[in-house]
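Journal club prep — side note

Before the paper discussion, L.F. wants everyone to see what a predicted structure for a comparable chain looks like in token form. Sequence:
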Amino acid sequence: MKIGLVGCGNISSIYLENLTNVFPNTSFYACADLDAEKAKNAAEKYNIPHIMTFEEMLECPDIDVILNLTTPQGHYPLSKQALLKGKHVYVEKPLALTYAQGKELIEIAQSKGLYVGCAPDTFLGAGIQTCSQLIKDGKIGKPIAATAFMMCHGHESWHPDPEFYYDFGGGPLFDMGPYYITALVRLLGRAKSVMAYGAKGFEKRTITSMPKNGQEIEVKVDTHIAGLIRFENGAIATLIMSFDVWKHSMPNIEIYGTTGSLKVPDPNGFGGPVLLATSENTEYSEMPLISPYSENERGIGLSETVHAFEEKRVNNASGALALHVLEIMESIVKSAEQGKEITLESTPSQEVPLDWNVKIGDIKTK
């Protein structure tokens, strides 16, 4: 499929690298960015034949799919325009800023027979896939509980344009939460309800990165979220997402079952150590990874979506999965505001088992 890339910012380079050099079923036809220099640099570095405006991409019959890597505020409006023009869409997380917007995108896609894919695709990496297989094989028994922690002191120390991280649709929950919640959903299944508290550590943030060093950001969202997610299978996950923590020693994700415990690697990556302890062997042991996808393979979700389209099946990094994650996040915010449990209505797509006995770049179903 030929890709029209909109948004040539920080995250675009790894997509461009992998979808150009690793995954053979995609190619870039055009790129666009509000900053003409960024589009020009991307086109030159990755031999993209056309630089277009977004509007020109929508009218171009040679472009099959729009890869939407804009900031969160651009995810819904640009994806909607692309779908209405008959283009498949793959969008960075989150799917949209609100659950209602996300539902609308999925409904448009379904009405037109189009595919929506959405980051993160890190759950397709060797780390989480190995954990998923261990749970399916009964290595920890029946899952009872989980913990998930993402705590740091924000992104204004390194990101060149960090303002959107503290705007509506940002914060630790909407920025980093998709990695952790997507992993939990793929490991534990559909979430049933949530409860949460939220707080804001600082009303303003000072940028220390270049080129905006010294500028202040008004913080518009909670930057510390403590939540509970109850899953349909009975498991309960404790979730903490924070931009207010200087240092901590908590794990990324752990899953606790009736006969064992599982340490899940950082869901923001594709690999990492998978550690298993059981009632018979109470010391953690590192498990062999079942897949070759253990480096930064961002873009595998789009490549797999193309395979799904060709095979007329659901894609793994699907719009339905992203919509479920979006509803979980929005409901966590609502619960923190309203002080009550929120019941969820959405259902993620079932994961399609893939054959990981392949070389890098290949994708096939079992």
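L.F.'s comment for the group: The mean pLDDT is 97. Keep this in mind when we get to the figures.
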